[in-house]
Design goal:
With about 190 residues, the protein is an alpha/beta fold. The protein has one domain: 3-Layer(aba) Sandwich (Rossmann fold). It has six helices and seven strands. Bound molecules: S-adenosylmethionine (SAM). The site of S-adenosylmethionine has 21 residues, from strand 2.
């Protein structure tokens, strides 16, 4: 699978992205609550982790998870600048999120799923860290030709994402679109 190159960090926070996928509004739309315990899986530079941390009450944390140490260093810098103290970075393995079972109420997966080889195994690992009734919000590029984003062939379509995640036993509870370019789906762990 095509992996995001950390040299392209600037693509994760720029004017286009702030207009089309504004972080706080996106988090509100996908249903983040101030009482959530959050895992931002494949957090990149923390474009969503920092605003998510700001939306939580002080004692709740955002675990910012990434396989790239370089990305996590950037998250730590950004957290310092923003003055947030409830972001915890964890350098994870491809299929090991390094969090305890049943510890998270809100897992966020933005533009990551299309980079994963064994998606079934990856979703199983996310399900492991989610509490019962916990939610998983997936945001992905629509699988259409467009100027921005990865090539169409590298993307994962809406139907494929729904099938993959419901087959792992999570239920779809909400869906939405962002700027005609992205789809969002929220799932719940109910078993
Ligand atoms: C396109 S970036 C998206 C970053 C962030 N979610 C955002 O929307 O700004 C994809 C990120 O996923 C990370 N990643 C890829 N595979 C991963 C895995 N198996 N576990 C954790 N992070 C992963 C990459 O290192 C990269 O930082």
């Amino acid at each position: 699978m095509h992996k995001f190159d950390s040299k392209n960090k600037s693509k994760l926070d720029n004017e286009w992205r702030r207009q089309n996928l504004p972080p706080s509004k996106t988090l509100e739309r996908i249903g983040l609550k101030s009482s959530d315990a959050v895992a931002d899986i494949g957090c990149g530079i923390g474009y969503f982790s920092i605003p998510a941390a700001e939306m939580l009450t002080d004692r709740n944390k955002v675990f910012a998870l990434d396989t790239s140490e370089e990305m996590l260093t950037e998250v730590e810098k950004r957290a310092l600048v923003a003055g947030v103290t409830n972001v915890v970075t964890i350098n994870t393995e491809e299929y090991d999120l390094k969090l305890p079972d049943d510890s998270i109420t809100f897992a966020l997966l933005v533009n990551v799923l299309h980079e994963i080889n064994d998606r079934k195994r990856f979703i199983g690992e996310i399900k492991r860290i989610l509490k019962l009734e916990g939610r998983l919000a997936v945001v992905e590029w629509k699988k259409e030709d467009m100027e921005m984003g990865p090539p169409t062939g590298h993307r994962i379509g809406f139907d494929e994402t729904v099938r993959l995640i419901t087959e792992e036993g999570l239920s779809m509870i909400d869906k939405m679109e962002f700027a005609g370019a992205f789809y969002g789906i929220v799932f719940k762990k109910q078993e």
